[in-house]
Amino acid sequence: MDVTASDAKTRIGLQALIRLQADARALKLPSARPVRARQAGLQQSAQRGRGMAFAEVRLYQPGDDIRSIDWRVTARRQAPHTKLYEEERERPVLLLCDLGPTLFFASTGAFKQVRCAQLAAILAWLALSAGDQVGGIVFNGSTLTVQRPARRKKSVLRLLDTLATQQRLSLDNASSEITLDTALTEARRVAHTGSRIFVISDFLGISENTASLLGALASHNSVSALRVVDPLEQSLPQSGRFAVAGPEGPVWFDASNRNFQQAWRKKVSEHDARLKNCFRLSGVNAVDISTRETPAGSLQAILGPGGRIG
C-alpha cells in the first residue's frame, strides 16, 4: 500500500517514486549538441570512434573516414592526418542511498530520508532513459540491500521498492550498526571500474575512515556526494522552545539561550570543517541539497544539458 498524501513529507511510497519518472523526463531538456559537464563528465571508453570528445590527431590510415581528416595539420605536416574522438558509451550508475536514523528529520519541506529516496529515484530514471545500467545500495542503520547494476526497468522498480520499504517510520529501537562506511566498503566490492557513483546522505555519520573509503572508491570511478541538509541544522531560530525527536524521546531546547546557540554553532562549524576536509582528501565533488528544495529543482542545477548524469 502506498503512502497517503498526508504522510508524503515523512515517508514516500513506491507509487510516488515511480511517478518521479515524469520529473526525470522534464529534466531531459532538448539540447542541440551534448557537451561535457564540468562536474559529472561524460561516459568514455578506450575505444576510438566518431564521438563528441576530441582525443588526438594521428597519421591517416586506410579505412579512416575521410570526413575526419584534419586539413590544417595535413597541410602543415605535408601528410594526411585524421582526428580521433573518444566514443561515448554506457557505464554503470550506482546509487548509495542513506536512510539512516539521522535522516528521519526535517524542519521544513520533507524529511531528509524522503529527499534522499526522491533524488535516488530521479537519478535512476535518468540513467535508465540514457541506456545505462542502474544499481543501488540502500541502507538504514539496521539493513543494507545491494542491487547490482542492470539495464532493465524491472531493476529500477526493484530499487524503488527497496527505497520505499527501508525508510524509517520510527526511531524506536533504531540501530546504527550499518553505517555510511559499511555502504562505502560494500560499494568497492560491487562497483565495476569506471562506474558513475552518487552517494546520497546527510553525512552526519562520517568517521576517520570515511575519507579513505571515498578516496578508494573515487580512484577508479567518478563519485559525487549529494549532501541533504535541513536549514535548522545550519542556523537555529533566535528564540522559542523547540522539541526534537530522538531515540529516548523528544529533546527540548531553548533557542534564546546564548550558551546553547554558541555550542550549537561550534558543533556545526566543526562538523562542516571535518566534512569539507573529508571531501577534499577523497577528491569527491560535493553538492548541498536542502530539504526545502524539490529534488528535480536541486538536480537541475548540477546535471549536464539534457539531464546528463555522466
UniProtKB/TrEMBL annotation:
Residues 56-273 form the DUF58 domain. This is DUF58 domain-containing protein. Pfam families: DUF58. It comes from the Bacteria. InterPro entries: DUF58, vWFA_dom_sf.
